[in-house]
Amino acid sequence: MTRRVLTMCASVLLSCAAWAQGFNDVLGVHDMTPMGKSPIKGRVSGSCLYCHAPHSAMAGPATPLWNQQLSVQSYTTYTSSTYHQTGVQPPLGSPTKLCLSCHDGTVAPGQTVAYGKLSMMGSMKTTSKFGGDLRSSHPVSMKTPLADSPEINVLLSSSAPNTTDASVQLVKGNVECNTCHDPHVQAKDPIVQDFLVRDSSNGSLCLACHDPNRVVNGSVNYLGGWVASAHARATNTTANQPYVGGYGTVAGNACTSCHMPHNAMGAVRLLRGTDEQSCLSCHNGGTNISPAAPDVFAEFSKTGHPFSSANNVHDRSESSVLNNNRHATCVDCHNPHASTATSSFATPPAVRPSQASVVGISASDGLTVLSPAVNQYENCLRCHGTSTGKTFDKKFGYAPVRIASAGDPLNIIPQFSATATSSHPVTHDRSSSLSQPSLRAQMLNLDGTTPGRNMGERILCTDCHNSDDNREFGGTGANGPHGSKHMHLLERHYEFSQAAVPGGTIVNLFPNPDLTVNGSYAMCAKCHDLTQILANTSFSEHARHLNDGFTCSACHTAHGMGGQSTGISGERLVNFDLNVVGPNGGDPISYNRATNSCSLTCHNHQHTIVKSAFKSARRS
Length: 620
Hints:
single chain, four-stranded antiparallel sheet
């Protein structure tokens, strides 16, 4: 009897082996037979038998004649601030649990139900073993029904939820390992041979569930704009050092340029690293892509916008107005799912294509969220408006203190307001009724001589705060305020007059002014003709002050009149720096444009009001 049973078992094994022989090529590394491609090899020649048994397999409708011993491992599952399907373990016998019976690494391959422990040699790759920590892998066996979301395919809300691609199937309305992987065929995707259920170039596998065009109850779809984005269309070739997807081009890698479905370094949202590290692979000027992208990180190596740290990390669920958690990660100013290269520069104040679909804050109240932002300055107002916790950072250089201020000198909204006595035209068109004889018809490029963009009714924040070698104005570097060799992220050289005490000696005079791009006034000279300033066409004392070595900052504020003062009329951005200018004896600091007069002490010199009518008004 025993011999008969053994003969029958041998016959079954041989027949299974013969039947499965034709599948060895497609099984790839899942073929653990002696001649198979797996790094783990057993002595049984039937490739199917390591996972399945025709008889005496694990019972249950969810286990397809399963032969490998199941793991009893408990898992720490994926989580994030915007993910709501947490708290579910893969059920015993579920497709995911079958895969994890080998891939969590707690049960060795060859631990079979029907045949006992098979003799095996070799070991699994480290990247194929997940242990009990699934936080860095795409979530599976989620809580059902799945929560509706703008980025998730519309069919999830139907009575029979599924994806838009017949190759990508939900299992009983849930995402399981075999939603994305076919364990029986390694190379349906001929490039990335990871048992994918379909060719996943251009993000096609991800897009079967993650729909960039869906809108749910008016909610913002953070994938919106993907189809036209640089990451979806760029034909730059990739060297994959470091690995960024395997498909050879940025467009081919698509989602996997930044995300990893398994073993992600930045577990939250499955990023290849932290926010900046995910971008670093391509945007560091290296050879990982060709032609190379602008070296944005070279700008940050100067004096750059502050990256996030362990104490102020970026998160997609954070408030649009960045209060105490202030940082400037790439994704605060760029939406990687919508951003496109800026090849032409439209009229301000609209956001540039590189900032398409970013979040902004309304300049009308500093609180209303605009998603997406329409104007560039709205994105800047996430940090530079009403947000609390703002501080002067010494690394950006000297900061003046203005006599007329709205209370928060770092809130630029009142400084650019249309109701301000005067301001640069960022949030509103030019509105001054005063003549502006020094204003150029065109801004000057970085060389200080070549005409650049036409001077319109508006300017951008980045017309002053920009990389010192930006492409828009004739350089070769990245556009935008990533970093600069000049203080305050300014595009060009600009000096601030400074004194040891208010009204005392100015310690950094620049006599016989250099009017070139190397001089103290290069930033102002981009838009204002300094020869007109020295000709006193707008103020009779300009030439004397500049020839003596004073800079614009002693008398003029850069943004606008953020507040009002009884002694400062405020036209032409005149708003003295209280660190430099002091009172004239017992008289308060004052300025009146209508009478062209002032009262103050600067550089140990007392300026006396000369118009008797203004003097009488002041004394009263």
